[in-house]
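--- STAGE predict ---
source: upstream dedup step, 1 unique chain passed
mode: sequence only
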Amino acid sequence: MKKVFVVLCCMIISLGFVTLVGCGSGDAPSSDSQYIGKWQAVSAEFKGEAVDINEVLEGEQFIIDLHDDGTATVSEGTADESEATWTETDKSVKVEGDDINMEFADNDGKLSCKILGVKMFFQKVDEESAVPTVFYGEYGYMGDDPVEGAVYEYAATEFPKGYEPDEDTISIPVVDIIDKVENEDGSVDVSGVFEIYNYKIEGDTLMTQSGGSHPGKMHLVKDEEAQVEAYKVESFDAVGDGSQFEPTAKEIFGDNYDKFMEVNSDEEALTALRTETIANYVQATGIEVTKYQDYGWDPVEITK
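--- STAGE serialize ---
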């Protein structure tokens, strides 16, 4: 899947951008428009599957710079720049030029653009650095903390492996962080209650196929190879099962053991967090579902 995606993106970038949206006229941007500034591609999807943006762009930056005079600069890498103009429409931005025709939808402060089935997400970045944190919406996290985003990514990609999901499975985590410690060497330890649920879409419903709880502590380090500010989980210490539950939990959580036990047993709070995370995932990916359902239980509405 990734190879197909990369080839498609290369074709799009080399041949110019073509959007499949209606043209419609936009308004000239106001001098205080929230969209003025640099927007960098931070994540991408193809047919609902998240793809590494660094692999797609081969380590290069893809930046749209929207100027306050209605002009725009589209930068692909360090050498390739194209000039364009931009306008505002209803909750969207249009960028047009000789070989550019893109329309971006506003996703709670981030911009997304769909080109030939490829959905790319752009985040506003600092004028000087142009190095944002990664967008982790495809894992159910809508914040901008790269450490927490990496925790969601790990939970969404590693925990499902124990359930042998197929290619149609959608895995969405639940993350309830109990403690986060920044170490002197720049690494970070994050302990908490981590759950994973694996779903399949049936009609407008995410039907739960499998899932479970994986409490423990993640050890994260900075991802030095990333073009953006990012972390990766280097190791994970899991709370044991059965007779090993209490001793391993006390060792991992230490003084936070009582808090862990409280969080781990609060089903109502974890369910609310699960529903919120699913809503974030739905918003970020655009899948057409309105509720989720566990086997034998009533469906739960998703509030976007």
